[in-house]
Amino acid sequence: MTSPARLFSRGSWAETARIAALLRKETVGGLLLIIGAVVALVWANTPWASAYEGFRDTVVGPAALHLDLSLGTWAADGLLAIFFFVAGLELKREFVAGDLRDPRKAVLPVAAAVGGMAVPAVIYAVINLRNDGGLVGWAIPTATDIAFALAVLAVISTHLPAALRTFLLTLAVVDDLLAITIIAIFYTSSLSLGPLALALVPLALFGIAVQRRVRSWWVLLPLAAATWVLVHESGVHATVAGVLLAFTVPVVRSQAAGGPDAGPGLAEHFEHRIRPISAGFAVPVFAFFSAGVTVGGLSGLGASLTDSVAVGIIAGLVVGKTVGIMGATWLVSRFTRAELDTDLRWPDIAGLSLLAGIGFTVSLLIGELAFGPGSLADEHVKVGVLTGTLLAALLATAVLKPRDRRYRRIAEAEARDANGDGIPDVYQEQGRAVTQTSPRETVDEASERKRATDPT
């Protein structure tokens, strides 16, 4: 009888180390995001609120190209294209060289991401059934903000196990793909096929250049900008251009470019260069321009919190995300006969699911697309997103913090390196177990053996 597969099992050391380095950058970006949001929220509720609104609504850009946009719009359409470019790179890397290339390992984060988006959307729609104008915002509570979630983990000093952090990142990556698909399909009000077709020209040239390992900014940046402008002109939200450009970047260097040992493709190089710009500048600036909602005192806050749009968002983020992710995880374990890793329990999954209810950047973006920036409904969206995010963070803290002693023990075991070779002992023991497996090896062990022997 074969051993049951393990959910949330520890991955390879190379993958764990890569993701740990990536998450450290996202954590710093998340802290900057929080600072930007708090500054905007405080400024918008002071006697100088008009100065904030005037600054946000300042129009810059060439009118001849239809790019005379407000600073707030530039942040949503332009800076978030950088964010989605980085998300696209990470997504492609996961599907080409990461855990998502193995269907057996991809099934859990993909199912959890789908469940974590579908259930919040249903909850929001049910709450807003009698609000015809509010139904358009059904996708607002579907997004997870990985940077904000990691910042919360940093603030509460919880040593979440590497397997759970990896799962959270993978779930957020799939979440971003689904979110940009929703934006492209459901939040494109008018479509001009001419500019969209023309956008394929600079996009193709960009793809050819990166396939040939061209790194010169004076070649790539104009092509990327032209793609962005034409996608913007087509009526499709301009952030889609960021994902399309990312998908052209090679993850693995082809044999024609120097053989299988020539190293990774340009995706890793671009991610290393551009992620700090995205996490440290683009997303915090967007948060600054988007989070500034005038509450109007306790009465105004009460009116916003009782609006069905805000209630739907809060319920979707806090309840929907938790039910969707935990439900999908249970279904995967039920139908694949997989069991949780021996170090974890279902309360750990509950805390992680609550943490995934922290939705900020993409939720605010979809709110603006659904109701229009500056509208009353958009103000309610901001209150709902901020409140739901805060509640999800507090509840996740309440669940995860008491379990930190267990997490510390796991972290110490994962960091122990008795022979001082730079690779923790648990990963070496895991590697030896993989090479010595019999035909009874588990699904996860088989995946690790395949990863170790596959040169790609």
Silhouette: globular
CATH superfamily: Na+/H+ antiporter like domain
Strand content: under 5%
For the CA atoms, what is the radius of gyration? 22 Å
Rounded average pLDDT:
84
In the predicted model, the low-confidence regions spanning at least 5 consecutive residues are 257-261, 434-456
The major pleated sheet works out as:
2 strands, parallel
What does this structure look like?
With 456 residues, the chain is mainly alpha-helical. Helices cover 69% and strands 2% of the residues. The chain is built from 18 helices and four strands. The protein is globular.
Offer a quick outline of the entry.
The protein is an all-alpha fold and 456 residues long. It has helices at 13-43, 49-56, 71-96, 103-127, 146-156, 162-186, 193-211, 217-234, 239-247, 266-290, 297-306, 308-336, 346-355, 361-371, 376-400, 404-415, 425-435, 443-453; strands spanning 6-7, 59-60, 69-70, 339-340.
